[in-house]
Write a structure and sequence with these properties.
The protein is mainly α. Helices cover about 85% and strands about 5% of the residues. The chain has a domain of about 70 residues. It is built from three helices and two strands; from the N terminus they run H-H-E-E-H. It has a two-stranded antiparallel ribbon. Strand 1 and strand 2 form a beta hairpin. Helix 1 runs antiparallel to helix 2. The longest helix is centred in the middle third of the chain and has 133 residues. The model has no long low-confidence stretch (mean pLDDT about 80).
Length: about 190
Amino acid sequence: MEDINVVEILIYIINFFVTLMLLYLLLYKPVSKVLSERKERLAKVLNEATVKREEADALLLEAKAELAGTNEKAKQLSHEALDNAMNDAENIIDNAQEKADEMIARAREKMESERQAALERAYAEIVSFAGGLASHILTREVTVEDNREIANRFFSELVTQGKSVLEDKAGNEVDVETNVKEEIKS
């Protein structure tokens, strides 16, 4: 066989190990260091992501609780608004009823005062008629014939004034001239 040169083989082996050593020192350590730093950064990022996720979950739970509280508060506010609206409506109705009652009372007072004024005017007219009749009767000596003539003249004047019909106590119209003539005849 050919001669194997042991020295060359040894040189190749030493060369191989020196190259390995140089590669280890120049490449493996820096690459290993970069990879370990990268691994540490990834672990750190994963830890931060886990922490952020836990915080987000906590915030989500807090937001859900706050939303539930807000829904309850909104319901409460809507009930309060509805109650306030009902109270306002009742107050408006009460005020309207009070005003209506006041208006009715004023109208009744006005009607009563107008009725009283009408009664006083009617009384004044009757007194005036009676005074006119009495003055006609008292102007001379009275006989039955004179009474009839005076009454006829008085009622003729009433008819010309358009006052031949008056109302009695029951509110019925009465022809005064006819009634007085009948009274005088009897």
